[in-house]
């Protein structure tokens, strides 16, 4: 889950666009994990250094995205 902001910047989009797309990619990756029968997954979202270099608005957006997306993903994956 690295490079969403840089990817969005290359496309002349806002960082939030990249973060949203990254969330969608996470869901696709988890779908593949389920299809292949992989029992455990570990993912990295933000390091301390990564948090310190971001603007407060971007961090607030990321935290909100995590609060909204993760519970839905967990529920969906458990159901499958």
Question: Characteristics of this structure?
Answer:
single chain, 80 residues, mainly alpha, 71% helix, globular
Describe this structure in words.
It is a single chain. The chain is mostly helical and 80 residues long. It has one domain (4-79). The chain has helices spanning 4-10, 15-35, 48-52, 56-79. Helix 1 (4-10) packs across helix 2 and helix 2 packs parallel to helix 4. The longest helix has 24 residues, at 56-79. The model has no long low-confidence stretch (mean pLDDT 90).
In short:
The chain has about 80 residues and is an all-alpha fold.
Average pLDDT rating: 90
The share of residues in helices is over 70%
Class inferred from helices and paired strands:
mainly alpha
Report the count of strand segments: 0
So what's the oligomer here? single chain
Nearest-angstrom radius of gyration? 14 Å
Query: How far is it from the N-terminal to the C-terminal residue, by CA?
Result: 23 Å
Order of helices and strands: HHHH
Profile the largest sheet: none
- Shape designation: globular
Determine the strand fraction and express it as a percent band.
Answer: under 5%
Number of domains: 1
The DSSP helix count reads 4
Runs in which pLDDT lies below 50 for 5 or more consecutive residues are none
Secondary structure elements and their pairing?
Blueprint: H1 4-10, H2 15-35, H3 48-52, H4 56-79
